Amino acid sequence: MSGIPPGPAGRAAVLCGVGGRLPERIVSNAELSARLETTDEWITTRTGIRNRRAAAPGEATSDLAVEAGRQALRAAGGEPADTVLVATATPDRRCPATAPLVAARLGLTGAAAFDVSAVCTGFVYGLATAAGLIATGVSERVLLIGADVYSSIVDPADRTNAIIFGDGAGAVVLRAGTPGEPGAIGHFDLGSDGDAEDAIIIAAGGSRSPVTEHTPRAERHFAMRGKEVYRHAVLRMTASSRATLAAAGWRPEDVDHLVAHQANLRILHSVADATGISRDRCVRHLVDVGNTGAASIPLALGHAHDTGALVPGDRVLLTGFGGGLTWGSCALRWPDLSPGTGRRSTGGKDPR
Ligand code: UT7
């Protein structure tokens, strides 16, 4: 891709395909209870999670991302993307980014490709990035993948984090369209608070503290101050959801689906309660797959789409939260993604 034309007026990024990939291996609460000091009851009541997936040895973020991306591109009608974004906190390597490799493996060599680093909020940040690239005419068709292999960074002996996180990848395709049509991505709210950088952290391995033979084991692994993160997650996703609702001109009761970062079922319910959205509007994919980081929102969207819960025209509120700290939300009307509609979507439900 070359050249950055001035932004053509009236362009918007429109969602036109979803896809996802989960590793084969299911890790149940029973399996974790057998090797860690925990119980199915503790995990279920504290988090709502029953199962999560684990990548096979040697299975990397790009492997899951390629399959999720392939599925999303196919669902969107098979046209190639000119831009590939991978939101991840677990890139295949520290350098280079994972997105160019994913693009090449999808036959998209030459596409613009880079990673979005905003931990579990990465997918929402990626949506905003894609929306900007399309609105300004830089990109015509963006493949955005959220993918994480948390099993590569969580200490398997850390009972608090090992029970929460799972591996997976979810993807969407965004095409150039017009604001207001079903699937148009808009009304973003994004934010961060770097003062709480160490609430979710891998302390060693970056330029601040390269890994040496003296690096303690705890600093090489993912660490999270669970209770503090929990509080922030509820506050930030609630405030961000409210801001996005106000920008979209929606009332809480207008929301058909709240697709929040799948961190903890109690967090989802607290955000719904505080925002004034009925709990039964929460998409709850985490029960089966845990917290899949940047993959959690697109995987939850794909799950809701595949099970028929998402109907064209539905009002969908996405909200994410993660390390950084970072957070963000976005509103969209669900497009018609039935086969053959990947290029032009038409809403099936009367506007309310
Ligand atoms: O994706 C980024 C965003 N992440 C999140 O939003 C996660 C937010 N945090 C959480 O979801 C919750 O804080 C956790 C699920 C991580 C932990 O739940 P909690 O209710 O906050 O538990 P806690 O960490 O305060 O621990 C309570 C007790 C402690 O024991 P004591 O000190 O009271 O004796 C822990 O040692 O539970 C203990 N504990 C466990 N017990 C059984 C911690 N993990 C476990 C476990 N099994 N797996």
For the largest sheet, list the strands in their spatial order: 1-7-6-4-5
Query: What is the typical, i.e. mean, pLDDT?
Result: 93
In the CATH hierarchy, the architecture is 3-Layer(aba) Sandwich
Question: What is the number of helical segments per DSSP (H or I, 4+ residues)?
Answer: 11
Distance between the termini: 40 Å
CATH H-tier superfamily: Thiolase/Chalcone synthase
What's the oligomerization state? single chain
Description:
This protein is of the alpha/beta class. The chain has a single domain (1-345), classed as Thiolase/Chalcone synthase (Peroxisomal Thiolase, Chain A, domain 1, 3-Layer(aba) Sandwich), CATH 3.40.47. The protein contains 11 helices and 13 strands. The protein has helices at 29-35, 40-47, 61-75, 99-105, 122-135, 159-162, 217-220, 226-248, 265-275, 286-289, 296-306, and strands spanning 12-21, 25-28, 51-54, 83-87, 112-116, 141-148, 168-177, 186-192, 200-201, 223-224, 257-260, 315-322, 326-333. It has a 5-stranded mixed sheet, with helices on both faces. The chain has a 4-stranded mixed sheet with strand order 8-13-12-11, with helices on both faces. Strands 2-3 form a two-stranded antiparallel ribbon. Helix 4 links the parallel strand 4 and strand 5. Helix 3 (61-75) packs across helix 4 and helix 8 (226-248) runs parallel beside helix 9 (265-275). It is globular, with a radius of gyration of 19 Å. The structure holds oxa(dethia)-CoA. Oxa(dethia)-CoA binds at residues 38, 42, 46-47, 120, 159-160, 163-164, 226-227, 229-230, 233, 263-264, 267, 291, 321-322.
